[in-house]
Design goal:
This protein is α+β, with helices and mostly antiparallel strands. 37% of the residues lie in helices and 25% in strands. The longest helix is centred in the last third of the chain and has 28 residues. Keywords: Membrane, Transmembrane, Transmembrane helix.
């Protein structure tokens, strides 16, 4: 359950239907996004958090691909 204040200053509660470890921890702040003027479309924004989980894998993949290309060019 997340409480947030919309752009009009009204307090709302949001119960996110997703479960699992990808959500924010209990008691921690959670970014909420919604369409302007329609707070009923609110959802917890976990996309940014998920992006930082894949960055190390992408970096390793790019490094590996670069080394493979370097070997091909060098020969």
């Amino acid at each position: 359950m997340v409480e947030y204040v919309d752009d009009q200053g009204c307090m709302h509660e949001l119960q996110d239907q997703r479960t699992g470890r990808s959500g924010p921890r209990v008691g921690s702040p959670a970014p909420v996004i919604y369409l302007p003027g329609t707070p009923g479309t609110a959802r917890i924004d976990i996309a940014r958090r998920g992006l930082w989980r894949i960055v190390p894998s992408l970096a390793f993949g790019c490094l590996f691909a670069s080394l493979a290309l370097w070997e091909l060019v060098r020969r």
